[in-house]
Amino acid sequence: MAKQKPNMSPVKVTMPEQAAQVRRGNYDEVALGYSMDMAIEEATRCLHCKHQPCVGGCPVNVQIPDFIGHIVNGDFEGAYQTIIETNSLPAVCGRVCPQENQCELVCVRGIKGEPVGIGRLERFAADWHFANVDEMPAKPESNGHKVAVVGSGPAGLSCAGNLARLGYDVTVFESLHVAGGVLMYGIPEFRLPKSLVQTEIDQLKALGVKIVCDMVIGRVFSLDELLEEEGFEAVFIGSGAGLPSFMGIPGENLNQVYSANEFLTRVNLMQAWRWPESATPINIGKRVAVIGGGNVAMDAARSALRLGADQVTIIYRRSEEELPARQEEAQHAKEEGIEFLMLANPVEI
């Protein structure tokens, strides 16, 4: 554990970012990540509390003070290894996990200032590992048991990684042509680079996880067939919540009216943002309205802006204080010039 005197700054070390007027015209990642000096400075803000509320606030109980202590001491690989003891996707979680509602929400430093930037430090440790360590993880010794995982989104991949480290023979079945689930089709490149998602998946494959794409469980195999004929002893179902929800108002069937699922899948998975280099175009016009105020709405609005829309407006039925989106995402959207129309709900398109 670090012996260094805590850094009592009440605010986090600022995360470097692309300027708003620059990033609104490209699909490169917005947040650029900490340098080593920045990471160490932020890590020294951790008080290493005896009762460690941040660990309890983490859904997978990452030993947060321990990995932060490694960063303080310059042992960045040690930080990464500590994280992956319980988290199979640290580079992903460091970027898109809602830390402000979980580990950082209960950070003691947040009582009289900003909490420690736990997510930013997790991202740093993972990025450092991938940039500096070429060795892939070793495949654990088999325990002789076989498990199927349905769906290769964050839940399925995390389950597969945890089981593989325990020696299980894991096969992941994915209905789409690439693995990753919402990490690939839902979250835009400027928030979560797809090459990074693939790097995380490659780590799991090195552990022995097998991934079968274009495989719709329920059509190709039933659950009974997986258990009774294919030799699996257990099945984890992580198929996601992929169906869109509509408002039931006139005009929803008009051209250029998209569900967020279809829009973001076209943009991200089918790479419409690269058209005409890619084979999938998308027609959005010049004035775009996005109905909703969550992270998906922010992703759709910011994507539309990058696709060439002149004006993008988010329409949300409640107040700004009640926006369900991450504060960081809403702030980025505003900086990029997206308009917000609050306390409004369309009755017809």
Can you give a write-up of this model?
With 349 residues, the chain is an alpha/beta fold. It has 14 helices and seven strands. It has three domains: 20-132, Orthogonal Bundle (Fumarate Reductase Iron-sulfur Protein, Chain B, domain 2); 146-237, FAD/NAD(P)-binding domain; 260-342, FAD/NAD(P)-binding domain. It has helices at 20-23, 36-43, 53-57, 64-72, 76-83, 90-96, 118-132, 154-165, 182-185, 194-206, 223-228, 260-269, 295-306, 327-335; strands at residues 146-150, 169-173, 210-212, 234-237, 287-291, 311-316, 339-342. It has a four-stranded parallel sheet with strand order 3-2-1-4. The chain has a three-stranded parallel sheet with strand order 5-6-7, with helices on one face. α4 (64-72) runs antiparallel to α5 (76-83). The protein starts with 19 loop residues before the first helix and ends in a 7-residue tail after the last strand.
Could you spell the SSE succession in H and E letters?
HHHHHHHEHEHHEHEHEHEHE
On the 0 to 100 scale, the average pLDDT is 95
CATH architecture name of the largest domain: Orthogonal Bundle
Percent helix, as a range, is 25-40%
**Number of extended strands:** 7
Uncertain runs: none
Outline the biggest β-sheet. Answer: 4 strands, parallel
The number of helical elements comes to 14
Shape: globular
The proportion of residues in beta strands is 5-15%
Instruction: Give the CATH H-level superfamily of the largest domain.
Output: Alpha-helical ferredoxin
The number of distinct structural domains comes to 3
What separation lies between the terminal Cα atoms?
59 Å
What is the CATH T-level topology of the largest domain?
Answer: Fumarate Reductase Iron-sulfur Protein, Chain B, domain 2
Strand order of the largest sheet: 3-2-1-4
Question: What is the CATH domain class of the largest domain?
Answer: Mainly Alpha
Integer-rounded radius of gyration: 21 Å
Specify the structural class: alpha/beta
